[in-house]
Amino acid sequence: MNLDPSAAFQAKSYSYLEPNGKEPRLGGELREKAVWVDESACIGCRYCANAASNTFVLEPIMGRSRAIRQDGDKTEIIQEAIETCPVDCIHWVPFEELSDLRAQLDELDLQPLGMLPKSHKRLKSRGN
Length: 128
What we know:
With about 130 residues, this protein is α+β, with helices and mostly antiparallel strands. It has helices at about 5-10, 45-50, 75-85, 100-105, and strands at about 35, 55-60, 65, 90-95. Strand 2 and strand 3 form a beta hairpin.
C-alpha cells in the first residue's frame, strides 16, 4: 500500500469534532477531577442541591446529598455548591478514587437522617 506523504501537508491543522454521544449534557463540561460527597459527614441541608441541581440530589432513603452526575453543571456552579456546604463534606477527587471512596462509604453503618435507629422492641406508652 503506497501512501502519499504530501497528504500530511494538505490536512487542516484543526478539525471539527462531530458529536459522538459522550459529550457532557445539561451545560456541564469535561473536567480532570470528580466531585464527591462524603455522605458520612453530610447533614442533608440541601444547599448543594439547590446551587447545582443537575449534579447533586438528596438521596431519598438516607436523606444525604449525593453527586449523581459529574457533567451536570459548570465547574463554577459546582464550586459554589462546595463553598456553601456548612460541614465541608464535598470535595474534588481524582476519578480513579471514586470506586474506592464508594466502597469505604458502603462499609459504614449509616442511619437515615432524622430517623431513630431501627429497633425490634416496641416502646411502652407513658400511660401504662
